[in-house]
Amino acid sequence: MKFNPATDIPDLSGKVIFVTGGTAGIGKESVLALAKHNPERIYFSGRDTKRAAEVIAEATSAANIIFLECDLTSLSSVQKAAQKIISESDRLDILMLNAGIMDAPLGLTKDGYEIQFGTNHIAHALFVKLLLPTLLRTAEAPGSDVRVVSLTSTGFALHPRGGILFDGLRTPQGGGLVNYGQSKLANILYAAELARRYPQITALSVHPGVVRTGLVGNLTGLTKALVQVTNMFTMVTPAEGARNQLWAATGKKEKMVNGEFYEPVGAPGKHARKSKDVKLAGQLWEWTDKELESYGV
What we know:
Shape: globular
Number of domains: 1
Largest sheet: 8 strands, mixed
Family: Belongs to the short-chain dehydrogenases/reductases (SDR) family.
Keywords: Oxidoreductase
Pfam family, one: adh_short
InterPro entries: NAD(P)-bd_dom_sf (IPR036291), SDR_fam (IPR002347)
Order of helices and strands: HEHEHEHEHEHEHHHHEEH
GO molecular function: oxidoreductase activity
CATH class: Alpha Beta
CATH architecture: 3-Layer(aba) Sandwich
């Protein structure tokens, strides 16, 4: 499917948007593209205040763009960022869960979760939990069109046998790419479960393609060489990589199946057995809800 953000993103007047990881890569490109279509406000998060200032300066529109400093390895930092949005806006139309890490060294988040699962899934699930009342309130208005877009990857297929190893999520677990696959499987399952539980929200997971960003650039050794060689002729720029999530966030809803996983651009993704496992999705939702029950606004 062809999707040109310059011409295919509709007028976003009155809409409030939040993009995680918006200081670089496809997150930055998404912020810049959305800002050109007159949203009321765009929030974007990241850890680098200098880069954030550069993004705001680069935006060539009168959009109200607000940076939220946020460390996704810290749930208290996520909570603080969400509280700022809630305190300043009574609506949220688009939640783009873009930030993430790939093949990180073995380790734990500040809250004790496997680093990739904690960053890629748990932190974003907390944003969903805390911002859900605002999303649902927005969805009640006549003519509303609320979207939650989760960035995943076809690398979800690298997940461990069994899908998600719940008993080990407070340990570093096994290997970098296996852990990455587990976190990206969680992104697909959680979006699908969000759509089942709250069908008034359009919740999708999207693969951006293999993008020339820091995620690939920060890989090392054999893993980096394998990714580059096997994708030599298919790697895309950050602007191209942003198109699938921009389509999911602003494209025609009648072209979408709520809860589905899409590859670039707007093409139904190739599932594996675990990525379509409704029971596992429900188990992930309940486990996550239990882990986050002490966090509120």
